[in-house]
Known about the structure:
Layout: H1 3-20, H2 34-40, H3 52-60, E1 69-73, H4 79-87, E2 92-97, H5 100-116, E3 126-131, E4 144-147, H6 154-165, E5 172-175, E6 185-192, E7 197-204
Parallel strand pairs: 1-2, 1-4, 2-3, 4-5
Antiparallel strand pairs: 5-7, 6-7
Bound molecules: S-adenosylmethionine.
Amino acid sequence: MSTNEALEFDQLCQDYMNALYQGISGFVSYEPGEKEEGEQKKVFLTYGEMLYPSVNSMIECMEIDENDVIYDLGSGVGKVPLQYFLKTPVKKAVGIEFSEKRHSLAEQVFNQVRQEFPDLFAGGRELIAINGNMLEQDISDATIIYSCSTCFSEELLSGMGEMADRCPNLKYIASNKPIPNRMPLAGLLDVDCSWDKTKWHMYSRDGKLMKDITRKEPAISEMTEASGDSQQTSGTI
Ligand SMILES: C[S@@+](CC[C@H](N)C(=O)[O-])C[C@H]1O[C@@H](n2cnc3c(N)ncnc32)[C@H](O)[C@@H]1O
C-alpha cells in the first residue's frame, strides 16, 4: 500500500468508526454504590478513552500479523479492539468489559460491523465483546494486551501481570500504568486520551519496538472523577 493509499484507508476507518459510535458513549451513569461495590471485586468503573490517532501510534510500535490476538482489558464500548480489527491483520480482537451497559454498546457496534462488512471476518477472523471481570477470563491466546489502566489498583495491575505471564505467545503489553510482568519495558509512548496527554508503558518480548519512543520516566496524569467520567469525549472518535 502506498503512503497515500494508507492515509486514505486510515481516514476511511476513522470516518467509519465516527459513524458507528455516533450517539454511543462509554460515559454512562452509575447506580448509587455501584463504583464502591465494584472496587471490592477489583473493578474500577471510571471511564476515559485513548484517542484514535494515539491508538494508531501504538499500532505502529508493534509488528502485527494474521496470527496475532489482541485483548483490551477493560474495553469500554470497544473502540480499541475495533480499531485493531479494522487497521491490522489480527486474527482476533477481544474486548473484556465489566460494565454491562458499556459491553452491550460494544456488542451492538460489533454486530453492525459484522452485518456491514462480512468480508472482514473471512478466514475465521473474530471481533468479540466479553462481559465480565477481566481477572476471571482466559486470555492465554493473547499476543497483545492493551489496557487503559489509569484508575486500576496495584492489586488489579498485579493480577493483570500474572495473567500476562500465563500467555505463552505474548509479544506486547501497552498500559498507561506499569504492569509488573516478565517482559522488559521497551519504552514510553506519548498518547492523547479523552482526559489528558499521558505516556503509555510499552513492554515487548525482546525489549524492542518497531519505532523509537522515549525511555524517560512518565508523569502519569491522574484521571479524576472531574476530568474523566463527568467529561464527554469531545475530540474523541
Ligand atoms: C479507562 S476505561 C478504558 C476504555 C477503553 N479500553 C479505551 O481505552 O478506550 C477502563 C474500563 O475498564 C473497565 N474495568 C475496570 N475494571 C475492570 C475489571 N476488573 N474487569 C473488566 N473491566 C474492568 C471499566 O468499566 C472501564 O470501562
